[in-house]
Design brief:
The complex is a heterodimer. By secondary structure, chain A is mainly α. In chain A, about 75% of the residues lie in helices and about 0% in strands. Chain A is globular, with a radius of gyration of 21 Å. Classes of the chains: A mainly alpha, B alpha/beta.
Chain lengths: ~350, ~250
């Protein structure tokens, strides 16, 4: 039997989904705003990929732009040099990224903490340099995808930004559902145990190395999908998409939103991208660069005063208690986990 | 005649020339509680960590149910039915107590298939160890006694046949110690063989059927608690030399 709380929560969620689905119909005439949403969805996807490795497994990477870049380059080069269909490049991009990340990082997980982070930076820079110096990949000029007229599903290219909006949305939601599933699975518990303490993990039968490799490979695969999307959406890529600053941009939404939560990148991604775009629009014209300074100030303030991120604050806030009890009608002391177990007990 | 669960033969560990444990041999019989005591720095924890696969021994052999397990990876032990606790508690701080234990239920030998199954096993384990009321507390927000008990609950949730306890009573007050002793006895009555390191002699005497004494990395005595406590060398190690001897030397 569902409680009032559960019913109202489902209703609120339904309304939110409806709003997101119908939004492009209201802003159809504003391609710039739609673009902001597409970028936000894409950044959120990348941030969720990062969060699997950084937030859930505790292996902080500053090289995710490179994972994404590997996927984007694989796809773009197959399309331009070999005339592949963009859809067919998805599995190849995923496979190559998975192989590269899996092989490289299985050797690097012996390093812990900041040393691992340094390796991810070095790895990303190596890949960028290789691409920057190889004729095959277009050197610094980058790769332009062939022009496609109108909206063409077969060629994965659309003139209409609304279609891209929905594609990015589907990508983000799918990745979120995957991450949510992992979070509650055996794999998720292994990763979280490793994050908290590797010795404990070993003591209860988890092989840390094995699960870290699984995490980096899944993270790489998701990044590759986002990379193929990126290449097809912008129709042009160059080695600068793998810069370290791009990697940091992917880490921020997760940290600001709350990296301990699957929903963290979701909240952080939407907020940070809209904030950054808003600041650029409003202040960029007044004094060049002032928008970046304001962005940095917001970042520092959040990290200084809410180190567990927005969700970390929210879950212990009076605001949440108010929202759940007064608006959603939660009975105080209603305990999801306990109820789950009691139900399980009754069934026997 | 009960089976020997753990047999250690001539175990030695040197850290860059410093011998921490030398030539220690001991056995733990099935269904029994075996204790290991010794002054600080005697090499108890080193021996313990070698038996549980966390340190590779320099030389020597470790046998589990007659099978050589020397040099196996630490994470293979849970599947064999060996669980351990840590002297310095290692709670999974950002997870609830229930999820701390659920993680063990996913792995270990329960191999829970779903989150619900894992949490049910965890809830049962928490009821057994008397922590069910605290299931939704974050592990890092608990005090020492509860974290010590959580260590045991987490080890138990792997469904072990052989449980290694590393000073689970250190830092507990007398009442909590009594509770811990009762819990260890309950675990043992459920058929789990126990090997423990302990400083609190009262606990050792009331629990253990056999005690091994280490000093300077060597085994100096073995036997029932009474035998060991009346051993002149053990008394000397723990209490110092008798007065008249000291006079004679001085």
């Amino acid at each position: 039997m569902k409680t009032t709380f559960e019913k109202r929560r489902a209703l609120a969620l339904g309304l939110l989904i409806l709003l997101i689905l119908l939004l492009p119909q209201f802003i159809r005439k504003m391609p710039y705003i739609i673009n902001v949403f597409i970028v936000a969805f894409y950044m959120t996807t990348m941030s969720m990929a990062w969060n699997l490795l950084g937030g859930m497994t505790g292996q902080n990477s500053i090289g995710h732009a490179c994972f994404m870049g590997l996927g984007a380059y694989t796809s773009a080069l197959l399309i331009t040099n070999y005339g592949w269909n963009p859809w067919a490049t998805f599995p190849v991009a995923i496979l190559i990224t998975a192989l590269v990340t899996g092989m490289v990082f299985s050797q690097c997980f012996i390093l812990r903490g900041p040393y691992f982070t340094l390796v991810t930076i070095a790895f990303a820079e190596c890949v960028r340099q290789v691409i920057l110096n190889s004729d095959f990949a277009g050197k610094a000029v980058g790769v332009s995808l062939p022009y496609v007229k109108g909206n063409n599903w077969a060629m994965f290219a659309f003139k209409d930004k609304v279609i891209w909006y929905y594609i990015a949305l589907v990508m983000m939601v799918c990745v979120y559902l995957i991450m949510k599933r992992i979070d509650n699975s055996k794999l998720g518990f292994a990763l979280k145990t490793i994050r908290e303490d590797e010795d404990v993990a070993a003591a209860i039968g988890i092989r840390p190395l094995r699960y870290k490799v699984i995490a980096v490979v899944i993270s790489g695969c998701v990044s590759a999908v986002a990379g193929v999307f990126y290449a097809s959406y912008y129709r042009y890529i160059d080695p600068d998409i793998m810069l370290q600053s791009a990697s940091v941009e992917m880490v921020l939404p997760a940290i600001i939103g709350g990296s301990a939560f699957v929903e963290g990148p979701l909240v952080g991604g939407i907020l940070m991208v809209s904030l950054s775009e808003y600041l650029r629009n409003t202040f960029g014209a007044i004094l060049p660069g002032i928008n970046l300074i304001l962005y940095a100030v917001v970042l520092i303030v959040v990290i200084r005063f809410r180190p567990t991120g927005i969700l970390g604050w929210y879950h212990h806030s009076r605001f949440k208690a108010f929202l759940e009890e007064k608006v959603l009608g939660k009975v105080p002391g209603e305990d999801d986990i306990a109820r789950q177990i009691n139900r399980g007990g009754d069934a026997k | 005649m009960s089976e020997i669960m753990i047999e250690v033969r001539n175990l030695t560990k040197t850290f860059k020339g410093l011998t921490a444990v030398s030539n220690v041999s001991l056995t733990a019989d099935q269904g029994c509680i075996t204790g290991m005591i010794g002054p600080n720095g005697a090499g108890k924890s080193t021996t313990f960590n070698m038996i549980c696969g966390f340190y590779p021994p320099t030389s020597g052999q470790i046998l589990y149910r007659g099978k050589d397990i020397t040099g196996r990876r630490a994470d293979e032990f849970a599947d064999m039915g060996i669980a351990r606790t840590f002297q310095i508690m290692k709670p999974l701080g950002n997870l609830t107590v229930l999820d701390n234990v659920a993680s063990s239920a996913f792995f270990g030998r329960h191999k829970a298939k779903s989150l619900r199954e894992a949490r049910e096993i965890a809830a049962r384990t928490l009821e057994f160890t008397g922590m069910f009321d605290k299931r939704n507390v974050l592990a890092r927000e608990m005090g020492t006694p509860d974290q010590k008990r959580l260590e045991m609950a987490r080890a138990l949730a792997t469904k072990p046949d052989m449980l290694f306890l590393d000073e689970v009573m250190a830092g507990l007050n007398p009442t909590e110690t009594e509770e811990a002793i009762a819990l260890i006895r309950r675990i043992n009555e459920g058929g789990v063989t126990i090997f423990l390191i302990e400083h609190i002699m009262r606990a050792v005497v009331s629990l253990c059927e056999k005690v091994v004494v280490l000093h300077h990395g060597e085994k100096i005595a073995e036997g029932t608690p009474q035998q060991v406590m009346n051993d002149p060398y053990v008394m000397e190690v723990y209490l110092g030399k008798k007065k008249e001897d000291a006079h004679a030397e001085g």
